[in-house]
Structures are given as C-alpha cells and as structure tokens.
C-alpha cells in the first residue's frame, strides 16, 4: 500500500487541508472501520477495486466519486479487487460548504454520489483524472475545478471565518471550561442558538461535538504511540476519569480503548490520522 499527501496551491490553502493518494496494486479483500475525523472529503475512485460502505449496517457499493459527509460514528468499509487507486480532497472541518450549495448537516453520516450533488462538471473532471499522465497533472485539474467553484458558489466569508476561528479555539482549549458553548457564545457576542446553527450549517456538528472529538483524536494518537498506559492516556487527553474515557472512546470507535489497542487496522495504519 502507498499513501501520500499533496499540499494545495495558494488560492486553495484556506479551504483544502491536503489532497491525498491511496493506492495498492495487490489483490485486496479487506474490511475496516473509518473513524470520525471532523472533515468532509471528496474521493475519486481511479482504479478497478470496488469500495463499499455500510452506514445502515448493510454494505453497498460507493459511487466512483464519493462525497463523505461529517462522520460522527464508526463506519464500516470494505474493498474488493486489485489496482486500488483513490485520489481525495480533504477539506478543513468548516470549508467544504464553500464549494457546496447546501447545509453540511444534510450530509451527516452519509457517503454520497458527488455527481448527484455537484452535477456533470465533476463527472467530466473524473474522466480527465483517469486520462491524466501524472499525479501533478491530476492535482492541477482538481485545483482548476475547485477554483471555478469558488466563483460559482455564493459565499459568506465572515461566517465561515468565525466558525474556523472558534474551531481553532476549541482545539487549543479542549477539555477546559473555556469550551462550553455558553462561554464561546459570550466571547463572540452570539446567542448559543445562533452559534449552534452556524456550526451545523458549516460543519455538520456542534461545538460540543468538536470538543469531544479533539479529546478522542488526542487519545487515539497516544494509543498509537504505545508509550503510555491507558490510565495515563485518559488523563493526558483531558478525561475526568477512566469510565468517562472508556465511554467516549467507545462512542467514536465501537470498542473500548484496550480492545482497540490490540486490533490491527490496515487503513488507520496506512493513512495519517491528522
């Protein structure tokens, strides 16, 4: 398996965290779990393998161009076949809305056919990506498409920037009293109701959810480093006690921390968890 990340050009840096390529020439029959990460993604299937997801506990084939909404619970995935090649766009948690004419919460816990939402232009882009001679040429095509979407979709940059600033605040103060929705709303002269509405519109989740997610992702990273005990990890990640840590971890992974630590995950081991 090969995984690499490509940084966006200057115009798209405020919106795209990175592009990524995941490929494998070997024959795969693999079941795995995708964990909540806080990001929306568009993924182009440029290979021959079939990917399936099971949001309703039943595996179904995904489209050739996948639009991943905000995934808030563990999602089962399955891949079958060889010549596996997936080229993805990973947006920041609040920036996919800049390219879509809908509220992000409408996509929650879904893997959609992107063509049904963005139309024939992205279908044409998929064909161009299949015909491109190099990865750099593919990235250039994607950036041209996204730049055109910036011109086509009406924007409210102040709202998006506000959500982005609050997300950064939540990341740096995770697990403290400063992350309460009431405290954040007062800081920014907003009502809690309006703050909740903005977050659902731009990210698909609430500020409280992102506070929980940051603690979970920190604990997950510490587990993978295999340097601390689970008791120490719970403390370092800001949980009140072990029962709180275990309960929250299970809500994001479906497993207790000790069970997850003992379980091999090919996708999670290959793809960086940032």
Note down, in words, how this protein is organized:
It comes from Chitinophaga solisilvae. The chain is 43% helix and 20% strand. With 274 residues, it is α+β, with helices and mostly antiparallel strands. The chain folds into two domains: 2-152, Jelly Rolls, CATH 2.60.120.10; 156-274, Arc Repressor Mutant, subunit A, CATH 1.10.10. Strand 5 (50-53) and strand 6 (60-61) form a beta hairpin. The longest helix is centred in the C-terminal third of the chain and has 19 residues, at 207-225.
Highlighted features:
single chain, 274 residues, alpha+beta, Jelly Rolls, Arc Repressor Mutant, subunit A, 6-stranded antiparallel β-sheet, 4-stranded antiparallel β-sheet, globular
The Rg value, from CA coordinates, equals 19 Å
Looking at the chains present, what oligomeric state does this protein adopt? single chain
User: How far do the termini sit from each other?
Assistant: 19 Å
Percent range of helical residues: 40-55%
Estimate the mean pLDDT confidence. 91
Indicate the overall shape: globular
Q: What low-confidence regions span 5 or more consecutive residues with pLDDT below 50?
A: none
Estimated structural class: alpha+beta
> CATH H-level name of the largest domain... which superfamily?
Jelly Rolls
